[in-house]
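Sanity check

After download, print the first record. It should look like this:
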Amino acid sequence: MIIHRLCGGLGSGMLLGMFLGMPMAAGPVAALQTDKHSTDTITLKITSSNGLGLDSIAGLPDGQTCTFPATTGPTPTSCSVSVTAGTRITMTPGFNTNGTGLPGVLGQYFVTGGSGLCTNAVSGPFTITVDKPKTGDTADCTIDTGTYGLNGLWGYEGQADVLSAGPLFGLSTHVGAAISMDGAALTYLGGTDGRAVWYGITAQPLPDAPSGAPLFTGTASEFTGGGAVEGGPSQKAYRLKSVVADIRLAFDTPESGRLTWTPHSGGTTITKEIVLLQPVPMADSVTSATNGTTPGPFANGRYMSAIPDAYQQGVSYFASLIPFAHGTALASTFLNALSFDPDGAAIWHTGLLEAIWNNDAWQVGQGTLTRYKGGNAIDGTGKGTLKAVDTLDVTGALSDTTGTLTLARAGGGHVDTTLSPDTGWKHGTWLQVLNENTTLAHPNIAFFPAGGAMGSQVTYFKPGAGSGFEKKTVKGWTSIPLADIVDGSLFIRNDPGAGDTGINGTVYLSDDAMSFPGKAGPNPTDCNDPNFDIRWQPFEVGGDYDLTYINVYAIPVAMRYMGFYNQGTATQGQLKTLKSDLLAAASVTPATLPTCTKTNGDKVTIKPDMSTRILSPVYDDTIGYYPGFGDAVKNAPWSHIVIADQYNGVAAASIPANPPCADSAYQPLNYQTDSLAYTFQPPKTKTGHGKYTLTVKGHTWSPALADPDGPKKGGTPPNGAVSFTMTADTLSPDAFSKAIMESVVSYNVTSTVCQSGGGTVSDQNGSNDVFSAIARDLLAGFSSGFINSSAYVNGGAANQWSYQWWTTPVAFAGLGGYPVPAAGQANYNVWGNAVFKPFGFGVYGFQYGDRFKTASPLVPVSTGPVELILLEEGPTP
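Expected structure tokens:
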């Protein structure tokens, strides 16, 4: 282990970070010694205080076993064995598997302590003596467990002087329903500036990290305009200034890892080995508490100030406090205060404080927080010599649940601050819109909320008089010029405690102010729509964010999030080709050109190649310009198609009102078709038209009845599977083609899963039940090009089942092997193919673009800044 001694002006013996010893290998140990004069038999009750942690105890007398019952949460669970009084037992804990889903050390359970007979419990073998209790016949042993975190202060490996050289990285991991990491990079600007600056870190895990190491990916962001550390508010507006870099953090052990830092400015990517900084005892260390009680623990990690949300206000503290030895009453507190100067620039103060366990709390002795300049930047450049800029005197107390600090500036004045444990950058997301598009004269943004008003959940700052700022609340259905949004930064609050329900709907990016009469969205095929002559591009927000060109292509937009998602990025050359491909896709001239009559009587022909946007084939007025699927559905290899996969079900609250099918059709189910047929019944008279009918037969069943991974090629439905029949008897080739293009189809369903009596009901794919999933796979199979590709259904004997389609990295034209289509016909969605060429599955090009498993247009946004970039298009092709 490398011990980093910290100097550089703050004295020796500085403590940074938290030391976590690796758990010893657990294996059966049976080492028993019994008092031969004792004949009393007592019950040894062994309790796992966190039922998720321990699996078993080995080494118990007479071959007895102790296996803890499984629990669904961190509740105590126990087992009991019979022991002769006076017996010495060397027991070894066995741990449950990592419950976090991450490989490597993060989330592994280890022993944190114990009580009763097991006060000396450790992760490896430990010995207890089971004496007869003073009362009763049961002796208690409680073992406490926890999980490894990656909390603490980290620095570069091999730095001769960690403090003066910098930088430092304060990290906090949060393991719960979701795993996240946050913290701050504490560093200095390079060159002649040299001032201290901090960047907020938000990251999320990638489970498939190389070499089994926990890997986090995220961003480092600069904020500006927040409060001062001594409590006075800044005169500026707190906001996201910029996302400085994408970061990756890989950890081999709880004490070592690697940082990769990729600047957004286009600089060189930096990769550095990092280590958790370790404690060095102070010279005057004491070994007993002043009041005789056992020193309590301290959660090493970031603590926030009294301001309720650091993400909105920007004042926070990162504290590391570790006793020098188990049970000692003296510790060092390395405290970093993250705040802003009077001009709104991010700054940080740092200091070493002595802490003594007193009156059942860690009492922080008086010390000094100092702001320095002259340290090293992230890339290692800088003077490497610290110079004090200003200081604050500080005293306080810290514990696992709360903390208090008193800060005073030399010359008078002080402020008392109450701290509370940080649970992550929470309560919202920053959305920053960056305009690189020089063809947009007056870029605007408008929120179109789904299902109701927005309340006060989205805010921004508008330039005010002089150098001031005015805080504004975004109103739904109202355009805001980007010039009115300082730094393009909007804060989307998501605090259930404040009544927030989250933002769900569409964001419109446009080249001028839009209007929404009656709160209606824009209609690009209505020449009287007030937005008809405005370029606009939709962007969807909710639990997932996504870019979509399903309906129109007008303004190219890219999205970056968490250093991993980089959707829609393209060069000017690629965008020029995309525009040409979309225009070329509309290669058919319909027999009747759709027109729209303006209120002044002028007639406008509705065509895909409008001056403000290109329209896709999802509109009735434009579908006729694009090659259809009439021949593809008539000539499809229907007898070879098998639709088989898993339907995950929907929550009760998401079931539509008055659904066609019963709730049983919305439960998780496997589905598999037995046969598909598309048949034509000739007319019975010379003047008749005949009728096409689509018939789909198959089975559904509960995943509990069979392989939990779902249907497999060559498998048969299990006993208990329920049959179904789906029919659509008004689906002519043209109507079928339209259903594929617009992803809307109606059909009848006969199944006891839909109706308990097995009657026939009318359904459609918008119902989101299990039969909608079957219809979706069929429509998407045609649109993506699988069904008529020789690589898959049409001749690809090894890849005929639909669940295999969605694992391919290619689709549309890339599948190949299609029969030559007739004029005006296609084997795949030509619009979707044009969008797929530059963006892959990272952008919606057709309605079921999220069906693929190799990538997805859906970006799961929780915390961390989201960047929207209006891309430069260059000259019009």
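If your output differs, re-run the checksum step. Summary of this record's structure: Helices lie at 162-165, 310-313, 572-585, 630-634, 733-742, 770-784, 802-805, 830-839.
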